Amino acid sequence: MTETTLTKFPYRFDVVGSLLRPTDLKQAHKDLAAGKITAADLQKIQREETKRIVEEQANIGLKAVTDGEFNRSWWHLDFLWGLTGVDKYDYHQSYKFKGDTTRTDNVELTGKIAINPNHPFFESFKYLQSIVPEGVLVKQTIPSPTMLFRDNRSDNWNKFYDTWDEYLVDLSKAYRDTILHFYDLGDRYIQLDDTTWAFLISKLNETADQPEEHAKYVKLAEDGVKVINGAIKDLPEDLTVTTHICRGNFKSTFLFSGSYDDVADYLGQLNYDGLFLEYDNERAGSFAPLARIWNNDSHKRLVLGLITSKFPELEDKDAIVARIQEAAKTVPLENLALSTQCGFASTEEGNELTETQQWAKLNLVKEIAESVWKDA
Questions:
Q1: pTM for this one?
Q2: Which residue ranges does the record assign to the Cobalamin-independent methionine synthase MetE C-terminal/archaeal domain (predicted)?
């Protein structure tokens, strides 16, 4: 972005990414696994449902729409499996959500990491780009490269690299090449979703009085900044890159709690155009860290996730407006925006609400934003 122009995205009211999977799409995945239908049959249903939810998002008035992540089962793993040098394996452990258990799929390195020019997400993007209404932007979501640091996914790095830093350089390049390929296909808005920072909030807190352990998580945070900024450096001026700092989202449960305070300085170093931040309940702490996350960057927007995607009850409009005004005491109102705190279905299981309730949540985001910002 130029030094005199505030990024146009994220929009004042924006969608995080994932949407509830319809019943016929869920059934199609089961039928494919059982050998009752072909991959082509599944794709037909997936594309029909993607077209429908694109129209729904446009009808609400969203200026950027996603494919609901209907082309994947997990918000992160399907993309990572598609990279060169990465494969799928059974982790034999469930990810530790509060109140539920997940499937045990995971990722492992099987070679040097690089872009996969035939990544299936590129074909999905081309289809999405072909069906969006005129004047509506496609928002492409993928997991952050830091998601390869977690849950034993990089354990094999020393089989393919002499040093950890060489691996990090290749990881940044694989992502940068992938982002530029999306750009060449017409993408102008991409979001890197990330639970690593919420994980670090917990770990930096837990190890505050354990210097050696604490140093490991400080190094992880520093490496995260290095890899992300390497992945998004020197991108085209008209490409907006944002992130969603997620605390975990599985069947309306969560993974992590804690204030952004412990990671605010690292988040403030990230060269994103916008950060989507979860602020839908007391687990997120106060707005005080926003100043350090924003870091006096007049071109950056912080998107306040004040509307929960986990539960169907609609928030009180006046209460949300009051919270926005409270946040504006720390970061200028013109550098703020509004969204739900997360998507509605980070995995295909989805959160505990109906599709009608999902659209009502997004409508509420729009209505509140239009009442707060004149340029919404």
A1: 0.91
A2: 15-348
